[in-house]
Amino acid sequence: MAMLSNLDLIRRVPLFSLLTNEQAQGIADSVVKRRFRRGEIVVEHGKKSNALFILLTGRCRVLTADSRGREVILAVLQSGDYVGEMSLIDNEPHSATVRAELQTDMLILGRAEFARCLPENSSLSYAIMRGLVQRLRSADRQIESLALLDVYGRVARTLLDMSEMEGDQKVIRSKVSRQDLAKVVGASREMVSRVMKDLESRGMVQTQENGWVVIKELGT
What we know:
Blueprint lengths: L5 H6 L9 H8 L3 E5 L4 E3 L7 E7 L2 E6 L5 E7 L4 E2 L1 H6 L6 E4 L3 E7 H10 L1 H27 L2 H12 L1 E3 L2 E4 L5 H8 L3 H13 L3 E3 L5 E3 L5
Antiparallel strand pairs: 1-8, 2-7, 3-6, 3-8, 4-5, 4-7, 9-10, 10-12, 11-12
């Protein structure tokens, strides 16, 4: 990554894919690169950071806490994802904490540069709005799951949401720990372990040696 210019990095980010060369160069001149260590906080709930953070490599978790103070995973961010735009738009503190799950490289666009870029780049403004709508839909789906589905149903839906098609089956191409799954669905690790064991015994999901999960049949 060190050999790539900011413009090269910008061109690899889907958020900036529709920009002209001149627009992309303007943003490239405004961003800075930063590396976050594993476990380091990127943005913190209740605080302002005044920047847009764009993931180049690595992985981050979007976290909050339930009424008992237990950690809940709202989302997992990967290369090409971004965070911080909501606070930049409404000037309110962050509604969740984002923590690097792995060593993560990011591009950071400050508030002043962000405010200047939006009116100058309609495609960027549209991409930001589309991202906000997608997050709202995801939040609605999570609320629906918590309100209408039992733990079994929430686990099944979460597995489906995390999966991607590979041939004629759905696969989660990363290790899914019972603890992390419990934090996503809002249940105890023990309950999630029982649900996963039942799904595996019925042949509906299969956990491979590398930790990937193959979904055979889930109808939620």
